[in-house]
Amino acid sequence: MGFPALFPQRTPRGSRRRLRRRASLRRAERLGWETLGYGLGGHEALEQRALMAADLSLSFDDNLVAGIERTFYSPGTQVIYTLKVTNNSATDTATDAVVKTTLAAGITGATWTAAYTGDGTGLFGGAGNLGTHTDQKKTTDFSTTVTLPAKATATFTIVGTIAAGTTGALSSTASVKLGEDPEITKTDVDAFVPRSIAVGSNGSWTTASTVKLVAQDSKGTAVAASVTPFANSRSGVRSVLVDLTGDGKDELVTVANYGGAGKVVVYSQNIDGDGKVTLSKAKGYDNFAPFGPLARGMSVAAGDFDGNGLKDLAFAQYAGTGEVRLYRSTPTLDNKSPLTFYKSFTAVESGAVVTSLGTGDFGTFDGKATDGVRRDGKEEIVVVARNAGGPVAKVFQVAGATPSAIDTIKPFTSKMQSDVSVDVARLNADSTPDLVFTAGAGGGSAVEIWDGAVGAAANNKLASFVPFSGAGIGRPVFASAVDGDGDTRAETISFVQGSGETTPMVRYAVAIGSTAGSITVTKADSVAAVAGALRTAAASALNDPSLIRTSSGLMYKELVQGTGDAYTSSKTRVTVNYEGYTSDGDRFDGNLNTTFTLANLTAGFAEGVKAMKVGGKAQFIVPPALAYGDGAPSNGKPIIFIVDLLAFA
Q1: Is the pLDDT of residue 501 over 70?
Q2: Are strands 370-371 and 107-117 parallel, antiparallel or unpaired?
Q3: Which of these, 296, 488, 630, 634, has the minimum number of CB atoms within 10 Å of its CB?
Q4: Which residues does residue 181 pair with via DSSP β-bridges, in sequence order?
């Protein structure tokens, strides 16, 4: 079957130039060029360029929050750029403006989607850089072009991975060019900051508790020297690494462990030209104590609770009433009030003790709507408590007016009375975060990993094991899950013990298992440089909440959510418009209003279509195992489809 043209018929170049020239002359007359002494004859090209450059505007950045410049990056993380082209003209249409990007050399696996306002048109998605690519079916080239009527916009969302070994400045450029007019260019530059794990003392009878930053690798090299948040405290330090200001650089938030003071101490990372890090107390947090100065120890966790792109903080007292207090990040230039009280709720029954907090985006929950598949960018809170019936973990939605529990997990056994801790990270193939539970003192150094899927069915236990042996059995264990390659899935979990002076950190590798939703966990190595009675914390992975991952490994993004028929097992045929792209951005396939038998489709394409409703538009990112493997067009890499679902039959 032939492939009809997927791109609008272009007006011949000479005609386009004449049309733009006539429009520019009319606008020049309206703006009074001749009365200013600029005769139109002989100056037409110059005046046209000036007018057209003023019509189109371009913005390009990797900011997560409007108005806050993101100026740092860390290797082995995801980066999300927003490129917006606006036609500012009140009357004229910009036809076939060419949009290009040159992403930094350290960025790999980039894919993009586009959205239009004001009847703007153009491609809806692709891969690699925006610009010129090959249409393999037609053996011709095509470009990423947009046509924007007056006041229309085109917004491109570009998602890529910053390679683990990247250092130095991360510089990416975008441009837009309309005909013969000057190219408009924007460049986004971020400075390097190393990835770290926070390692803090878990308590000592003789020395004040400290915390430092170490590299999240097998060497455990010191990234920043130790600091002492609480000069007179020997109870240990709990901490989180979190970007509170939106600049791309994590702050170190510390609270005292059991029995310690109620004050919160926050440190900024200061980065010199060689990437060396020093810690200094951040402005604005002096004397901040969410429960007062005598809280007798706290738990702390960080997450974006209101969906504005900034990470917020949650606190709970160890010996309190079970209340959890949330504070929104509200950074300003002077940072006089960097945290603002948001809301609070009681998380446990009378007599229970909150032992740990965690956060993750488990879906869309606001007290009314419930969707365990589509994430809304608003994180839920995991509260772990010890009570007479054993440890209990509850997941609370806090987006609604009244926080409420949406899931309950009971790790270990009802006989366990140790203080269980939790770390939250995506570990299997799907989008939902999973939960790593570690036992406290007397709990046999046990670890359990549970699937975090929220729904009517009970959660599945994914793994259980003991990372330490010998004399260390029975000591408390703490975990930090680390995504080191930027795919938003933690492939390593680091474990430390909370007592003992010589036990080194151990690292376990987490791989996706052979059955849907499963994982395998195996010991990878020990980190001799990190040893002692410790607690750890790692920064959460940045990820695009609109990208849905399934247990098979398929990734898809709903560009338009359909409202028509959904797939049922009785429906065996599908009618679609589709375009297929290689990971480099070349178009290898496509068709309009074509009907397939579902059984004849590749596994990834069929799974994606079955997740849609009629009237929807989606981007599929299909791993090679669900497409063509090592053969063309996959060639061992993901391929990308943009699909309009027209009908099931």
Answers
A1: no
A2: unpaired
A3: 630
A4: none
